[in-house]
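Exercise 3.2. Students should predict the tertiary structure of the chain below and write it as structure tokens, then compare their answer with the key that follows.

Predict this chain's 3D structure.
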Amino acid sequence: MATVLAIETSCDETAVAIVNNRKVCSSIVASQILVHQQYGGVVPEVASREHLETINEAIAQALEQAQLDWEKIDAIAATCAPGLVGALLVGLTAAKTLAMVHNKPFLGVHHLEGHIYATYLSESSLNPPFLSLLVSGGHTSLIYVKGCGIYETLGQTRDDAAGEAFDKVARLLKLGYPGGPVIDKLAQQGNFQAFSLPEGKVSLPGGGFHRYDTSFSGLKTAVLRLVQQLEKDGGQVPVADVAASFQETVARSLTKRAIACALDYGLDTIAVGGGVAANSGLRKNLQAAAVEHNLRVLFPPLKFCTDNAAMIGCAAADHLSCGHTSPFTLSVESRLALTQVMKLYHPKSVSPEVVRGTGAGEEITNAQCPIPIDY
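Answer key:
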């Protein structure tokens, strides 16, 4: 079992962790939320400078917390895509330098793959195949996890990500940044049936609606119109009720699509990852629906829902066990599809079966995919 020191700097958390297979030996996360709150969102240049000031101390703390020295570290890993380019460069440069100085293998890790592996940290029995629901500030996707590095995207947002919708609704309700935690807290005090809000549906060219894709721009606009109407009528906006109604609509929409996708593809496990995986409304809705349909739904511990390096280390350890390593010429990418994960590793370390996507069971073609229908 490999021991990996991993670095995560894709956005506004400077994180370093040491992971032994699926066991977390240490996990350090230095958040920049207070720095960016005054701007109402993440400022890329500010984030990069904060990473530069924090990274060395975070590495030292991770080693101290794990009570390990460099001789006990088998490999160095860092998030290399997707994310803010300047922020990613800080972590990637640090990881490459450490790998060179200490003569260790180096691995670049896809950020979204890390979120998939977050559930592995608390569920030792989890193994592919399963369905991953990734919900964060930048991504909302349904991923068929077939094996290490072998993924198929079955559904995704057509506009705003779920976390992005939470931030925008929080802003129009004057709740500040980040929006997810404050809306979740208020929603537990409000009436989720107070207002009827539309679930975003994605139309199909031949009629009906896509069974797995999501859309949140219309819901966001509906909340805006609701608040404007309430203010126009002269009454006080019941913020808790609006927050509860909004959160319930998002949770119901995500749950409906995840359950349908798992059933259609014959997958009995749904693993949820990303910052929105911490949302109480989503957890309640999805767990209830999973019981009804005899499915298993898994959520990471709250501390591993948001960005952290432990999930990056877990993914890197699995890749290393498969013989995958990255070249020191690897660069960062602001955007990279999860299905292109294996381009991050040496071609000679990747089998042809993995490249073709057939290394973890029978490949599913478009012709075999369930037909999207209206629900």
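Discussion points: The longest helix spans residues 239-264. The mean pLDDT is 90.
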